[in-house]
Amino acid sequence: MQRSATTRTGPSRPPNLFGMDREEIASALAPFTGRPYHASQVFHWMYGRLQTDLRDMTDLPAALRRGLSERFRVTWPEVKEIRRSADGSKKYVVALEDGGEIEAVYILYGARVTLCLSSQIGCPLACAFCLTGTMGLVRNLAPGEILGQIAVIARDNALAGTSYRVVFMGMGEPLLNLDAVMRAFRLMVDTKGFGLSPRRVTLSTAGLVPGIDRLARESPRPRLAISLGASRDVQRDDLMPINRRYDLDALIDACRRFPLGPREKVTFEYCLIDGVNDSDEDAFRLARRTRNLRAKVNIIPYNEAGVPGFKTPSAERAGRFRDLLL
To answer: Does residue 270 contact residue 300 with C-beta atoms inside 8 Å?
Structure first.
């Protein structure tokens, strides 16, 4: 799939309010209304009610709605394709205004809904088992492009006002775009915005230690997940080249100093690949690595729709691996 960004030329469009925070909306609207609460109303309509037509924000004066609709727009990314799975999950191919494409996923597990979001077009980290890593980095996403993934999925699945989880585990390394990710996060957890609890948002990283330390200083912040991929450095160096800069000891140390809430744990995600990192000794090493940490380990069998050359382990092998971790 072509996901690179291209430049589109044409007539200039009005500024897009979607992706702006409260202060930015207030500043944009100030020349057209003398009442600051109008900006709060627009904010809630956009993020809390997922309204994209300024003319339909009915608690605003009619004349103001007309004027704002002539000067501004509320625009989401465009859904180009939806790929449905038998388990009810859906993968959304989303087109951005510059022609770039990203993917977001609606995951249904029983009655629980999780949205998996992208933070970049492509990724510079080149993890061997990740298809996105073969693209390289095209660019970072803006806050509105991150939030737009939630908006299009929420509208398609009637999620407004319901409880769901968000994980930054799609295309890209979120810690390499942390400014935009955190701006989007703050709008997710704003009670007049998307209204999510911070506990329901998780950021998954390949292991950028300085970024983990920076995230630790944010409040509120998402929960932390680490894509581990291997239990020894020589193997992780090959599978996840970021390990050559921040090895497993440095990564585990960063997790130890990461401040956790009373019931919070760091999640270690371990992509289980047949014949690569699924041996009994791999399981024993992984158990030793994560011992004495406030952490849980999530075993994820490799998806063969990814990079050719890697295979999904058998259900028996995956089950034994999980048992050995206990």
So the answer is: yes
User: Mapping DSSP to helix (H, G, I), strand (E, B) and coil, where does residue 6 land?
Assistant: coil
CB 185 within 8 A of CB 215: no
Strands (E), the chain: 78-84, 90-95, 101-109, 112-117, 120-123, 136-140, 165-168, 201-205, 223-227, 266-272, 295-301
Domains of the chain and any CATH numbers? 22-71 (1.10.150), 78-325 (3.20.20.70)
Query: What is the SS3 assignment for 54?
Result: helix
Q: CA 96: distance to chain centroid?
A: 16
Q: Angle CA(146)–CA(148)–CA(149) in degrees, nearest 5?
A: 75
What is the pLDDT confidence band of residue 110, given thresholds at 50, 70 and 90? confident
Residue 224: count of CB within 10 angstroms of its CB: 23
Exposed, middle or buried by CB within 10 Å (0-12, 13-18, 19+), for 84? exposed
Query: Cβ(3)–Cβ(121) under 8 Å?
Result: yes
How confident is the model over 127-159, as pLDDT tens digits? 999 999 999 999 999 999 999 999 999 999 999
For residue 281, the one-letter residue type is E
